[in-house]
Amino acid sequence: MAEIAESGGGGGGKGKKRAKKGSTRVDMTPMVDLAFLLLTFFVLTSTFSKPKVMPLNYPAKIKDPTTVKAPKVNNAATFILADDKVYYYRGEFYPKSKPGPDGPTVLEEANFGSGENSVRKLLASWNEYVIVNKAILQQKLDKKQIADSTFTRLVDELTVDKEAVKVLIKTDDKALCKSFIDLVDELKIANVGVIAPTDLSPAEKDLLKEKN
Amino acid sequence: MPKIKMPKGSPSIDMTPMVDLAFLLVTFFMLTASFRTAEPVTVETPSSISDKIIPENVIMVTLDRDGRAFFNLSNAEARKEMLNNMLGKYKVSLNEEQVEEFAFMSTFGCTMQELPAYMSTEAAKRASFPTKGIPTDSTRNELLDWISFAASAAANTGRTAFEEAKQKGGEPKMEDFKPKFILRVDSKTRYKDAAIVIDVFRELNLNNLNFVTSAEAIPVN
């Protein structure tokens, strides 16, 4: 133990009786033990970081799909998530039976790394317009030339601009949520404002089957 | 040579500062601690760069890696209202005690038929309760009912909380008191299973969803 009990001061063999002085010190070891026990308990059981959330707006459900025509989207990109791979194509989808100006649509493969052919690099080059303009706005904000609210409004407008890339996400039956969240995350990093998770069309399914 | 004299004093150390420090830390941790609630499923959430903290008034659907759905509503008062509506609709009864316990529980997952058995299981053993989760198929969509009753109950309690905050002064935003819809998926859940739950939300015209993620550093450039 940290403290050795001392014999009370004075007293003893000289015959003269004195009142015992008694040490005024209290042995604090048990209290320290208890304090550290509680400390350990609280450190181990408490959770500090609250989980974060990532908001995502889904398109409203259309009650009668036959009456609504798909709108033409400028500058669209489609990502298709298969079990562990990501494919993409730009613009509209042209099946083999009805090829577009550049022939039928071909699926390109991408990955979630940071090197060649990574989703991040691709998006950064496609969405350069938004990224560059957002950086300019950010600079203005830093120099206090525009207000906070103006900044958020301008950025919101920028992400739905004609030049900004719009992304459709289509998922295969085997796709995992991890790749979906990773992809949405990459889109948010690249400041993509329009994200629409939709279903695979039969023609796209066939094309995907050929790839595997 | 003269002998070196050893000091006679006691080898005791003054522990008071150490005790002070220890209790200071204990107090700090006691006051800041928010305890982990017992969950019937363990879910490993994917990571994202989002730094939005999970809101207060939430309706949360959890999906484990087998695609089983679990449900949670954060507000105890709203939970009671929701449970009573559900019990009425599915003609299942629970005793007073179980209703009270349900109000202060966290995430749960079972069919309405299993609910009485689920509630009489010990809290610690509910994690291993054999269930397929809350049914989501179109013929018997219990999840849809849970969500729709929860949404209306949580909207009510949110409104009263908003009125209270308004009376206290200050300028509360109604937006902060509205229930938020959270989807918590495991990294290995198939998106197909998540899509079923997302469709349930969309069916109720709740299109603004939030995915629970763990924090990740924002990449430079």
Explain how this protein is built.
Chain A is α/β, with parallel strands linked by helices and 212 residues long. Chain A has a domain at 76-127 and 165-211: Nucleotidyltransferase, domain 5 (2-Layer Sandwich). Chain A has helices at 29-45, 119-126, 128-142, 148-159, 177-189, 202-211; strands at residues 52-57, 76-81, 86-90, 108-110, 166-171, 194-198. In chain A, strands 4-3-2-5-6 form a 5-stranded mixed beta sheet, covered by helices on one side. Chain A is elongated. Chain B is α/β, with parallel strands linked by helices and 221 residues long. Chain B has one domain (59-215). Helices cover 40% and strands 13% of the residues of chain B. Chain B has a 5-stranded mixed beta sheet. The relative contact order of chain B is 0.18. The mean pLDDT of chain B is 84. Classes of the chains: A alpha/beta (212), B alpha/beta (221).
